[in-house]
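Chain A, query sequence.
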Amino acid sequence: MLAEWARDDVARERRAFQAEIAEAARALIDSGHGHLIKASVENYAPRFLPGYQLLYVDDADGDRISDAERAKMAAAGVDLTLGDAMPDALFWHPQTDHLWVIEAVTSDGEVDAHKVAQLTGLAKRYGKSGVGFTTTYRTWKEAAARQGKHKNVAYDTFIWIQEDPAKQFKVTG
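Chain A, predicted structure.
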């Protein structure tokens, strides 16, 4: 019984070590982009976008739009095609027929004037009442570093910082 227990203990230790190494490898591969999108959807949207419904999240490789997301977009009267800008998250407010786009930035992809023009065109194409935009960052330091260099966040859009989640900031000109 002692030999069997020792053998099982070694196997448990090996599995625990393998799990620990796998988690560490996943952390090295993950840029944090998926985590920021998730925080934007789960923390930012409920606080600052009441009444909006999540239609689409672009946080995985492979097929960019699932069948469930296509069904939600169809019910909202929109469709993202290959020619459209693909936001990190797309929301819709059923009462106002207004869209909202979130771009989560860990390396690139702020809501700039080009993205505003592309997605405003999408909203007009489907007869929506309008579209709003938020660029999200993980930290103040990352936001400052990106904007200190690029200064590309479009006017009349919002910025949200994950480490300071109770506030959002409007970009004005």
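The longest helix spans residues 2-29. Helices lie at 2-29, 33-48, 67-76, 113-125, 140-150.
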